[in-house]
Protein 1
Amino acid sequence: MITKHTSITALAVIGLLVAGTSCKRGHDNTGVEYAPQMYDAVGYEPYRQIKPNTINPQGLNMRLPARGTVARPNYHTTFGEGSEAKTDLMMYNIPADSIGIAERVLINPIPETEKSMAEGQVLYTRYCSHCHGQTGKGDGPVAAQYKGVPNYATDAYKTLNDGHIFHVITHGKGRMWPHGSQITPEDRWKIVQYVHKLQQG
Amino acid sequence: MLLVSSGQVKAQDAAAPAGGGDAEKGKTLFTNNCAQCHSVTGEKVVGPGLKGIETRAPSKDWLHKWIKNSSALIATGDAYANQVFNANGKIQMSSFPSLSDADIDGILAYIDGANKAPAPGPTATTDGTSSAPAAAASSGPSELFTFVLIALLLVMLLVLGVLLAIVSILSKAVSPITAEDVTVVTSTFGQRLKTGLSDAFNNPTLRSIVIWLFLLVAAKETFDGAYSIGIQQGYAPKQPIAYSHKLHAGQYKIDCNYCHTGAQKGKNATIPAANICMNCHGVIKKESPEIQKIYTAIEENRPIEWVRVHNLPDLAYFNHSQHVNVGNVACQTCHGEIEKMEVVEARSSLTMGWCIDCHRRTEVNTKDNAYYDKLVALHRKESKEPLKVANIGGLECSKCHY
C-alpha cells in the first residue's frame, strides 16, 4: 500500500514539475523587458508608438510631407557625362488624364548605358515582373489572377514611346494602378529603358 | 467549278467554319493580342467573352473598325459601340491598327472554331491514373505515423514500469508492510494522499531527491528566464488584417521591395500604405472580408494599425539600406523564411551577440566598389584573411550605440 501512496505522490510531484517547466509565453506576448526606458524612444519614431500621439491627426507619428517637397537623399539632376550631360529636375506635373501630352513632350533624360539598363532590369524585376512577367509577355504569377496584362512585344504595344510608358507607371492606365508613390522618377526612367528592350521581344 | 469549291469548303469546315479566316494564324494572333482581356468562351475576363461575337455584333465590317480603333468608332456616335463601351465599365480597349481585315477574320474563325470543338476527352483518363498513386502516397505517411505512435507508447510504458519499480524498491527499503497499513485501504483518497505525503516527507532519500530536483529545475528556469529578458524571438502577434506573406511573397513571387519600398533606400523598410495594397486589390478579391478592411480604412481615411513584430531597442541603431543595399544581405538572413510564413514571426533573437556574430563572419562586398579599394589594400598588408565587417568597424561600440 505504501507503494501506492508513494507512487501517487511521486506522480503528483513529477506532474507539477512538468507543468511548471512547460509554461511558455504565447505568440502574442513580447515577454519581459528590463529597463524599458532605454528601449523606448523619447522622440516620435515612425512605426513605433508606445503612447498614443495626441498632436497629429489620427494619432499618427508620421505626417505627409508638404506638397511639392522633394526628398533630397540620392536626388540627382544631372545625367550622363561630358558634353552629353543633361539636366532634368525629375519633377512631373502632367495630370493623370493627359497621357497624350506625356507622349508628345516627355523624353527619357537618362542616357542609355549598360549600367542604366542593368539597373532598369533590377527595378523591373522588383516592381513589374510579378504581373508583366520576366520577359514582358504579361505572364507573371499575379497576371493569372489579375487578367488583362498585355504583352509588350505585340503590335499595339511595341511602338509605345518614352512618355507613354513613363506616364503609365506614374499614373496607371486601364486596370493598372498608379505606381508613382513607390518608384522615384529616376528609377521610372530606368524601367522605361528596360521596357523598350522588352518591346523588341 | 461549283463542285470543286463546295468540296473545299467542306474540307475547311472544321478549321474555318466562319469562312474566309485562317484559324491557325488567328490562334497565334489571339494569344498574343487578345487573350489578356478576352476569353473565347462566354466568360467575361476584362472585356466580354467572345463566344458568338459574330452573331452579336452588327456586322463584320463593324468588328473590323472596332478592333482597329474602338475609340474612333465610339466617337462617331455609333449606338452599338457606345452600348458595348458603357456595358463594360467604360474601359477603353487597346487599338490594333496593324491588324489587317484578314487577320481579324482569322481571329474570328479561331474563336468560332474553339467554341465548336468537342470537349477534350483525354483529361478524364489522366485524372484516373494520377489519383491512384496519390492515394498510395497519402497512405504511406499514415502507416509510418502509426508505427511511430506505437513505438512512442511502448517507450512510455517502459519508462512508467521502470519508475514504478524504483518507487516500490525505495518504499520497501524504507518501511516493511505492517498490518496498520492494510487498514488504510478502506480510507478515502484524501486520507491516502495525506499518509502518502507524510510517508514521502519522512523518507530522507525521497526528500533529498525532490529537493535536489526542485533546486536544479528552479536554477535552470531562473537562468533561462534571465536570458530571455528583452528577447522577442518567436513573437508572432495577430495582425489587424490576416495578410499572408506565404501567399504574396511565396506563391505569387511579389518582390519584398515592391511593398517595403524603403528597404533599399532608408533606415526603415517601411510598411506599405493602403494605396500599394490597392495596386492589386483594386481588382483582385475585392469581396473578401479581410480585403474589405482595407477599403473601410481608405473610406474612413484612417491608417491600418499593423502590429510591429521586430522591435529593436532604441539604444541600438539599425539601418536597412546599409545592410540590404550596400551589404547585399538578403531579407531572409535576419527575418527567416518570410515567404513561407502565414503569420510573420520574429525568427532572430536580435541580441547584440547575434549582430556581432554576423559582423565577425560576414565578408565585405568590396567588388566593383572604389570606396573600399584603399581599405582592402591596407588590410592585405596586415592580414591574409578577407576583409570582414569586423575589420571596418563592425565591432565598434559607437557604430550602433550613440
Protein 2
Amino acid sequence: MSVNLKVLTKLSAKFAVISCLLFSTFAAYSQAIPTEEAVITAGKALFENNCTQCHKVTDEVVVGPGLKGVHVRRPMPWLIKWIRNSTLLINSGDAYANEIYNKFGKTQMQSFDFKDAEIVSIVAYIKSESEKVVAAPAASAAPTDGGTATAAQPQDTTSMNLILVLFVAILAIILIVLVLIISILTKYLNNSTSLSDIDKEVVNTKYDFAAVYNSKAFKGIATFVFVLVVGKACIDGMVGIGVSQGYAPTQPIAFSHKLHAGEYKINCNYCHTGVYKSKSASIPSTNICMNCHNAIKQESPEIQKLYKAISTGRPIEWVRVHNLPDLANFNHATHAKVGGIECKQCHGPVEQMEVVQQYSSLTMGWCINCHRETAVNGKDNHYYDALMAAHAKNSKEPMKVKDIGGLECSKCHY
Amino acid sequence: MSLTNKTYWRGFEELEQSPEFVKNAKQEFPDYLPSESENGGHYRRDFLKMMGFGVAAATLAACETPVRKAIPYLNKPEDVDATIPNYYASTYAEGGDYCSIIVKTREGRPIKIEGNKNSSISKGGISARVAASVLSLYDKERFRNPMIDGNKTTWDELDSKLGSKLQEVASSGKKIAIVSNTVLSISLQQAINEFVAKYPTAMHLAYDTNSASGILDANEKSFGVKALPSYDFSKAMVIVSFGADFLGTWVSPVQFQKDYSIQRKLSKDKKTMSRHYQFETTMSLTGSNADFRTSIKPSQELNYIAQLHNAVSTLVGGTQLSGVFGEDSKIIKSAAKDLVAAKGKSLVVSGSNNVAAQLIVNNINQMLGNYGSTLSISNPSYFKKGSDSAIDTLLTSDAGAVIFINANPVYDAPKAKEIKALLAKIAIKVSIADRPNETSALCNFIAPDNHYLESWSDAKPADGLFSLTQPTISPLFKTRQSIESLNRWSGGSLDAYSYVQYVWRVNIFPTQTEISTFQSFWDKALYNGVYENAKAFGVTSSYAFDINAVSAALSGSKASTEIEYTLYEKVGIGNGSQANNPWLQEFPEPISKATWDNYVTVSKTFANEKGLEQGDKVKVTSKSGVSVVLPVLIQPGQAANTVSMAVGYGREVSGKVANGVGANVFTFINAIDGKATYSGVCTIEKTGEKYELAQTQTHQTMMSRPIVQETTLADYVKDPSAGRYKPMIKTSDGEKSPEKISIWDTKGLQTHNYNNHFWGLAIDLNSCTGCGSCVISCQAENNVPVVGKREVINRREMHWIRIDRYYTSDAVNQEDKSVAGLMDTKREDPSENPQVVFQPVMCQHCNNAPCETVCPVLATTHSTEGLNQMTYNRCVGTRYCANNCPYKVRRFNWFSYYTNDKFAEINPAHDARENEGLGKMVLNPDVTVRARGVMEKCSMCVQRIQSGKLAAKIEKRRPIDGEIETACSQSCPSEAIVFGDMNDPQSRISKLLNETNQERAYHLLEEINVKPSVSYLTKIRNV
C-alpha cells in the first residue's frame, strides 16, 4: 500500500513537472497573449515601475520607440530575448535588433532580469493598452468619484454666493422703495394744510445721526465688532505662521514635474527611491537624472546644469519644499508602503505642477485629522490581524488609525 | 534571611543620615536658581522686559520661512539610503581590550556601537568603553596631519625623510625600537615583522599598562606556553578570585561577564548557581558581585593563595607548600571545600603580576582538574602579550630610533621618567597615534593613525578565533593606518585593505577547506565580523610544577603593618587611553559613583583613625619617594590600612576634556623582580585642603524603601518567592494588596487596554553586574548630553538610566553579631565589608503614572503600547512630573548643552558650534536633541520600537521577539535586561515573568500601585 502511494506521489510529481514545462513552453512560445485582468494589472505595475522612463504605449517616441502594437510587430520569443539582454541579440546579428539599435542613436536598452511570465504580463498590458487607445476617448468621459466630489465643492460655493448677492440686491431694492415711499408721504403731508404745527414738526423731524454716533450702545457695538475683526485677523495670521501651504520656491534647475510625472508618467518611486522603504522619500541623486539625460535633451541649458554638477563634483542644492519641524518624525514607508496612501493625497496633483509646491498645510491638525478619518490598510497584513479582530468585536466601523494609537504623541514625537 | 534586619544605603551620607543628605533627599531639584542678580538689582524685571521684547522679536522673525536646502548625493552609493541605517560588523581592539562589534551608520556616519552575537568571545555584549569609542572618532583634537618637528607636512615628505633617517640608523648599527602595547592584530604584527626584516637592527617591544606578564611567565614555566589560557566562566560553579577584577577590567571582561552570568541566572528549571569568592583590597566590580568577599592587604595576597593551595591540597591529597604563615582562615577552608566539591567545574584566578602567585594558582587549577574544562592552555588567548622586561630592554638598548605604535609609555609605563630622559637622547622619534599624547609630544615625526572606525584591520584574541575590523567612514583627517605606514617604511606599497587581505589569504584561508575561493571566504568573514575555527588550532603542552622555587618565593613574604597602596583601573576610563572622551569621564564609576576624578579610597575605620573626611586632600608618598596629592573618598569594603588609587587620570597631553583631570598614579608602579607591581608601601599625610568630588551616589535616592529585594539560594530553593516584600494596605475592609485599591477606576481596576503591544523590561538583579555598558549605550542612542563636573555636583546629571548601587549589611542589628556567618573579618562597622546590590533604574513606564496626572499641558501621556510618552515640544518645564515621580527618573534639561559656550570645554565632541560640524556627527538623527527647559527621560527607545514595528508591517507579519531591542538591553553583556512585548506569550519577557521566574518578579514600590512596566527579579546570593 505504501509502495503504491509512493509511486503515485512520484507519478503525480512528474506529471506536475511535465505539465508545468508544457505550460511554460506554451506560454513562452505561443502568440496567445493572456487577457486576464490579473495578468494585465501585474504587467501594468511592472511597466510603470520599469519601462515608463523610456517608453509609452502610443506611437510617441520617448527615449525608446513607442510600444503601441509591439505585440503584433514582434514575436514573443524575440521580445523576451530583447528585454533580457538586447546587446546579446544585437551581437547575434539579428537584423531587426540592429535596425532598432541604429535607429535610436545606438543607445542600448537596459537589461531586465524578468521571468518569462513577467515579460508576458508586460506584453499583455501593452496589448490591452494598444487596443484601449483606440477606444479611449469614449472612456474618458466618465470621471471618477473623487473627481466629482472635489469638483462639486466650488460649484456649491459659487451658487451660495449668487444667492447671497441676490438676497442683498432684493433688500437694497426694498430699502430704496421704502425711502421713496417715505419721501412721497412726507411731501404729501407737507402739502396738505390740515396739519397742526406739532404734527408738522413730527413729520419733518431730521434723523439725528450724531446722537446715534455718540450713543454708548453704538460705541460698544462698534468696539466689539472692531475687536472681533482684528482678533480674527490676528488669529488667522498667527495660525498661518510657519504654515507654508502653497510654498513654491524657485529651484536651481527648472525641473518640471508636469512633464516628467504628468506627460511621461514616470512613477514617483523611480526618482524618489526611498518612498516605500525609508523615512525620507529622498531627493533623487544626479545619477538618477543621468539614467535618461545622458541621451535626452543634452543641449538644454537646464540639463547642462546636471553635466556641470557632475564635472565639478558639486551636488545640486535643491530648495526644500516640505519642511517638517525636526521634532516631528514622519515616515514615508509607513504611509506609502504600509498604509498604501497615494503620493498625491498629501502632495497634491504633482503631475500638473510646473514648479512643485507645498500642497497640504502640513500642520499637526492636518496630520491628526487624517489619522482620525483614515481606515488602517490592514487587509492581508498579519501585523494587524489581531487588532482588526479585536476592533471588529466592539465596532462596526472600519478600524481607523486613531483606534490603534494613531493620535498618540510618541508616534511622531520622540 | 528576612528583609527586616538588613539596611540598604548608597553612601555614608545616607547611612549616617547627614543633614546635607536629608536636605537634598527631599528635594528633586537643587537650590540653585539664579533668582536675583548679584547686587540685588532688578534682575527679574529686566528679565521680563527682555522676554517681552524677545517674544515680539521671535514672532516677527518667525514670519519669514527660512530657505532650507535639500542636497542629494551626486552619485548615490547603491547601499546607502537616506534615513536607513547600515550595520557593519567590525572589531574594537585597543591594546588588549577586544570586542567584536556591529557599527550602526547613518548616511555614512558611525553613530552607535552594538555587540556582535557571532563572536564566541564577546557574544553580543559590549562594555562602556567600547560603547563610548564612537565619540572618540569625532574628537576634533585628534591629529589632522602628518608632522615633522611640529610642522605640518605631507605623507610623501614624511615617508622620504623618515626612510632615509631610518636607513642611516640601520647602517650605523644602532637599534630601531618599535614600542607598542599588546598587538592583537595579526596584520599589524606581520607589518612589524616585515619592518624588522627590512631593518635588521629593529626590535619589537610590547608592554602592557595593566600587565599580565606574571601569568605569561608562569604559564611558560608550567606548560611551556607563553600565553594566557582561555577561561570559561560559564562552566565554573565555584570561582575564587584573588584581586582579579574579571568582570570589570581584567583580561577580557565582556567575555567573562557573559559567561559568568550564565551560572548566575536562576529559573524554575535551573535552581543552581555558581558560588564566587573574592579576595581583594579595594571594592572592585567583581568583588561587589561576589557571594563572599574578603578584604585583604596586597602583601597578604600571595600568602592567601598559598593557604588555599594547601587547603585544597590537603583535601585532594597533593603536596604542601612550605613557607606559609598564619593559620588557615575560615573563609579559605570553606573556599577549598567548595572548590574540591566542584572539581573540574571550578576556577581559581589571580590578577597578581607575581610569577610565584600565578604558579600556585596554576597548580590549584591543575589539582582541581580544571584544565580542559573551565580554562584551557591548549587554546590559549592573546589579550595580553606584553612583557614587563620590554621597558628595561628599551632603556638599556642603544636605540638610534624609536617608533611608538599607539603606545604612550611616557605616561603609563613603569620608569616613565627614565623613558622621558632617554627620548631626549634619541634623534629619531616616531609616534603612530591617532591623537596627541604625552609620548607623541616628545616625538619629532608624527605619523597619525586612523581611528579604528576608519581602519582595515583584524584581531586574533585566541587561537582559532579571528575577527576583522572594517572602516565605516572615510578618514576624517589626513591620517594613515599604522599597518600602511609600516608597510610603506619597509618598502611596500600596499594599502591597509590589500595588506589585511594578503595576510588572511596566506595565513587563515588555507586553514579551512569549506570555502574554495578566497573572495567568498573573505566576504563571509567580513559579513560575520569573525572567522572562528578553533579546531584547526591548538597547542599541546605538558605540566610541570617546581614546588621548591615557589616555596622559596613564599618564605620571603611577611605580614606587613604598614599602610599599603594598590593601583586599579576604573571600568570607564581604564588605562586612560580614551581619557579625552567626555562620556567616559562622566560615566559614574560602578562602585564609587564618582565622575570626572580619581581619588584615594580609604576605609571608614582608617579615615576615623587618621582624622580624614571625604574630600580631604592627602599626599600619598610611596617608599621610593613618588608622591601624589588626591582627595579622599571613603570606600566601604576597603581593606584596613590600605589606600587605592585609579590610574588613567592626570593626563597632560590628551585634550581639553582629560587634561588636568585627577592625577597620574602610574608613577607608583613598582618594579619587583622585573615585574610591574601595582601595589606597595606608602605614607599618607593630610594637606589641609578640601576638594569636592562629583559623586552621583546619593542623587535620586528612594529614601530607604524596600526597593531592593534579595534572598539566599537556600531560601530560594525552598520558596522561589523568598525575599519578596509584599506590601499590604490597611483599609476599612481589612488588609488588601495594593493592586486591589485604586483611586482611579474602582470597577475595572484596569485603566489601560493594550490590544497591540505591551512593552516592558525585566531586569534580573542577580545577573546584573553593574558594569554600566547600558548607561553609555543609552547615552549614545538617545543623544544624552554631557554636563560636566560642576553640574554633576549640582545634581544635574542627565543619564536616562542610572545604576543604583546599594551597600547592605546585617551588622546594623548590633545585638546579633553571629549573622556574619562565613565572613571572618571582625565586623564593627556596617561599612567594613558590606554586600553590594546593583539596580539599574530607568523610567518605569508606570501604567498608573503619577507624572501623567500632574502635567498641566499634557506633555507626558500614556500610549496604547504601555509607554509613558514624553513630548518635548509640548513641555513648558513646570517640573511637576519630576516632583511627582516616585522613582526620580526624570531629568530636567537646564541648558542647551549642545550650543552653550559653557559646555564647550567639557564637551568638545558635542560642540555644535563648530563650523566643520564634527560635533553633530555622532548624534542619532532619529532622536530629538532636547532644548533647554524641557523634561526628558527614558522613552524605552521608542525610536527603535517604531522602526522595528515598521519593518514587521512592511513584511506583513508581527514583530519577532528579540528583533526589537532597547539600547540598554542590546548592550548588556550579562543579558540582565530583557526587553519585549508582554502581550506576546512566546516572548522572553513573558516567559520570565509568567513562567520561569514568576515568583521572583516584583515592581519597585508596589505599595503605591503605579503598575510599572519595568519588573525586577530578586537578587539571590549563594551564601
